[in-house]
Amino acid sequence: MNPLWTAADAALATGGTVTGDWHANGVSIDTRTLQPGDLFVALAAARDGHEFVAQALANGAAAALVTHRPDGVADDAPLLIVVDVLRALEALGAAARARTQARVVAVTGSVGKTSTKEMLRAALTPQGRTHAAEASYNNHWGVPLTLARMPADTEFAIIEIGMSNPGEIAPLAKLARPDVAMVTTVAAAHLEAFGALSGIAAEKASIMDGLEAGGIAVLNADLETSHILLDHAAAGQHKIATFGKGADWALGDVRITDSATVINASHNGTDYLFKLSVPGRHFAMNAVAVLAACDALGADPVQAAQDIGQWQPPMGRGTREIVVLDYGIAEETLDLIDDAFNANPTSMTAALEVLSASTPRDGVGRIVKGRRVAILGDMLELGPDEIGMHTALADDPHLAKAHIVHCAGPRMRALFDALPADLRGQWAPEADDLAGQVARLVDAGDVVLVKGSKGSKVSRVVDAIRKLGHRS
């Protein structure tokens, strides 16, 4: 097996100076997850990565990418010394991209980037050697890290690209040089940095600025801002494949059950009927986009439609699990929907639809009748109209099918006050306050949705629910 990076190759890519003749089989930025044989990259984040170089080498790192020899590191330690560590990581990523013949798809969107990346992994892996980040590495260091980890013999690469401020996507797209660029959707996420949906759409559209010659843009045709995406593609003279109702890849009927999503789609006279192993209309739209991307990459969309059923959402993004409340009583369980990683009005509506389609179980809990329970945390970074957006959730028809709604955070107070009296459960200033009382907020037989932005810390409610079964 050829090494991922030799000292000579890494020095050539970065213009750095090497000490020792080493080779690395991986690239790491964190000593907690570093594997023996990794090249440790001493990035400056909350703390300067140079503080951890000695530990990384002691843990078996093949070498360290640094700007200088840190204190406590031996004179003969294997190093790659550069002027700027982040710029050097970007150079490694660019070199890895240049040396591979892989077909590359880059994915962005206000909602569903990571889930779509994982759908693509499930669809493409059976058709060729596929590379994608294990986590949501989609920012200024995550994209070059993902590229730098890409083996030379990769056949399909999936690069997730995110943003929180204007001007972030285009440089990362140009680094990734995708053959296919996908925009899943444009929604009110990070709205305070852009002012309007049109600004978000323009930023998302800039992923096409990195397309290789002859590349294909896979675009959502059902958005109020779709014209911005399509105009950007036309200006760049890119080929276009659209997905959505009446699009090139047409989404037909979608049937949502407790445990699955059954999807009808069509393209160029071919009908597709396939299933996801989790419920969610938003997942259906992204799944059709995945088929379009697979086709654009030269993979077989028919096989992709079969294999995408193996996909499961990443943790915190709609994961379904059964929580056992009493290990002595088989029926003492509840159904937990963990969607606590991110939230905006679009993704909140999608999650509430999943909850509304779920069926609680009666006769197994202290309340006797099973319930649909929503525990909602603040949606963040929505801009000056954030309170209005929270209030508007009270009119969501899917929310009306819940039996009780608990809210955490100052913004969610607006929703709580707008709810009908029979839906109001508890409101708390912070998610921790609800986490401390989950034993009386949920019951066996319930289907429980927990959703909010990561910064709302509503994931602590998820953790508290999972621990209910461990009570003495």
TrEMBL record:
Among the Pfam families in the record, one is Mur_ligase
In this chain, ATP is annotated as bound at G109, S110, V111, G112, K113, T114, S115
Q: Which residues form the Mur ligase central domain?
A: 107-294
Q: Does the keyword Zinc-finger apply?
A: no
Kindly give the Gene3D superfamilies that the UniProt entry links to this protein: Mur ligase, C-terminal domain (3.90.190.20), Mur-like, catalytic domain (3.40.1190.10), MurE/MurF, N-terminal domain (3.40.1390.10)
Q: Which reaction does it catalyse?
A: D-alanyl-D-alanine + UDP-N-acetyl-alpha-D-muramoyl-L-alanyl-gamma-D-glutamyl-meso-2,6-diaminopimelate + ATP = UDP-N-acetyl-alpha-D-muramoyl-L-alanyl-gamma-D-glutamyl-meso-2,6-diaminopimeloyl-D-alanyl-D-alanine + ADP + phosphate + H(+)
Under NCBIfam families, the record lists: murF
Q: What's this protein's family per the entry?
A: Belongs to the MurCDEF family. MurF subfamily.
Role of this protein? Involved in cell wall formation. Catalyzes the final step in the synthesis of UDP-N-acetylmuramoyl-pentapeptide, the precursor of murein.
What's the name of the protein? UDP-N-acetylmuramoyl-tripeptide--D-alanyl-D-alanine ligase
